[in-house]
Design brief:
The protein contains 9 helices and 5 strands.
Length: about 200
């Protein structure tokens, strides 16, 4: 999908960062999307694994569904979490893959990454690495991962072709994707595609 020439991508990304910085710093605020531990529980995350994720991460959970409903990760797998936010999915994945596996988590919002790093330390997750990056330019070599997960992030990115091209590039042969996201069934008008509020909420 080509990026709309009239869309100010730099401004869009700054607004997305602003919105998710607020989710990180003001987790109790009412947003147009659900957040927090209760929401993750409603999405049927594995209770025993979710329980171990510190409140400091889960209070800012803003996913749209449960990527692990597509299949459990296996011990020893190498996982990439695109748009990790405060780290809920990352830390659930870290438990699934165990000490022989690894999770690389990327996000473009520094406030979310800071929160995720604190939660990982609190949980004692030593098999996790957090990187500030954008999904359209993943900072990883070809074939680096067995699984790519993402939750409610790709819908925020204008250049979806670039994202999926990068996912394909970094997946090892036989690798898989487990993505939870929002999709629409009807075309969006030109005016709608330029509306920053529709992208960020």
């Amino acid at each position: 999908m080509a990026v709309d020439a009239d869309l100010d991508v730099v401004y869009l990304k700054s607004e997305i960062k602003r919105t998710y910085a607020e989710v990180s710093e003001q987790p109790g605020k009412d947003f147009v999307f659900p957040t927090g531990r209760g929401w993750a529980e409603d999405l049927d995350y594995p209770p025993a694994l979710l329980e171990r994720v510190p409140d400091s991460a889960v209070e800012s959970f803003a996913g749209v569904a449960n990527p692990f409903s597509l299949g459990r990760l296996e011990p020893g797998e190498r996982v990439l979490d695109i748009g990790c936010g405060a780290g809920t999915d990352t830390l659930v994945a870290a438990q699934m893959v165990g000490p022989g596996g690894s999770v690389t988590a990327i996000d473009m919002t520094p406030e979310m990454l800071a929160k995720a790093r604190v939660a990982a330390t609190e949980m004692g997750a030593t098999n996790v690495t957090f990187v500030e990056s954008e999904a359209e330019r993943l900072p990883s070599p070809d074939g680096s991962f067995d699984v790519v997960i993402s939750n409610g992030v790709i819908d925020l990115i204008p250049d979806k072709d670039a994202v999926f091209s990068e996912i394909y590039r970094v997946l090892a042969p036989g690798g898989r994707i487990q993505i939870a996201d929002v999709s629409i069934q009807q075309p969006v008008s030109e005016e709608g595609r330029r509306n920053i509020d529709l992208w960020t909420g």
